[in-house]
Automatic annotation (TrEMBL):
Pfam families: Cupin_8
Phylogenetic lineage: Eukaryota, Metazoa, Chordata, Craniata, Vertebrata
MF-aspect GO terms: cis-regulatory region sequence-specific DNA binding
Domain JmjC residue range list: 65-199
Gene Ontology CC: one annotated term: nucleus
Name of the molecule in the record: JmjC domain-containing protein
Gene3D superfamilies: Cupin
UniProt source species: Malurus cyaneus samueli
Top-level taxon of the source organism: Eukaryota
Length: 199
């Protein structure tokens, strides 16, 4: 996750992730890094020292959750420098090609139940809770209801046999989501993550 390019250290995040970032904890955190500056969902970059990036991530946790959710439709021209330094999960499905999507999201945000092709999701910073159902088990949800509202109102009413499979991803952890499996996510903290879609 850490690579030297043109004399600068580039980071995906401000904090070392055990087992995913080479070097010692804290090494080079005063070097410049590339981060996404995404107010109002603008896609632009700015160079920040790691300490300033850490402080900006902490400040985003003060923003109401519905104001910060950036994910998908990453223009590879703009995001290419980030993706070329990303070390993807070492797992493959024969005959597929990876497409990366970078995301930043506020605490309490997420996506309601949906499905698509297979892939992986990795948390870089924060925590992301996942709820999954196999393709033949359609979840009880309203597509315009947030995952947080679903968790607070619908989830407690579900009999145990109708509850989803679930887990919480932490930094450096990866989840494989199979083809056409229903899934919803809830960011428990301000989160930074990368998904690898296999097509």
């Amino acid at each position: 996750m850490l690579k030297k390019t043109r004399g600068k250290m580039l980071y995906l995040c401000a904090c070392p992730i055990p087992g995913r970032v080479p070097g010692q904890a804290g090494q080079g955190l005063d070097q410049p890094e590339i981060v996404g500056d995404v107010p109002a969902f603008k896609t632009s970059f700015k160079v920040l020292p790691a300490q300033a990036f850490s402080e900006s991530v902490m400040q985003t946790s003060l923003i109401p959750p519905d104001t910060l959710y950036f994910f998908g439709d990453n223009n590879f021209t703009e995001w290419g420098p980030l993706f070329q330094h990303y070390v993807p999960p070492p797992f493959r499905i024969p005959g597929t090609s990876p497409a990366y999507s970078f995301g930043i999201a506020g605490s309490g945000s997420g996506v309601p139940f949906h499905w698509h092709g297979p892939g992986f999701s990795e948390v870089i910073f924060g925590r992301k809770r996942w709820f999954l159902y196999p393709p033949d088990k359609i979840p009880h949800f309203h597509p315009n209801e947030t995952t947080l509202a679903w968790l607070q109102h619908t989830y407690p009413t579900l009999p145990p046999a109708q509850r989803p499979l679930e887990c919480t991803l932490r930094p450096g952890e990866v989840l494989y989501f199979p083809d056409r499996w229903w899934h919803a996510t809830l960011n428990l903290d301000t989160s930074v993550f990368i998904s690898t879609f296999l097509g």
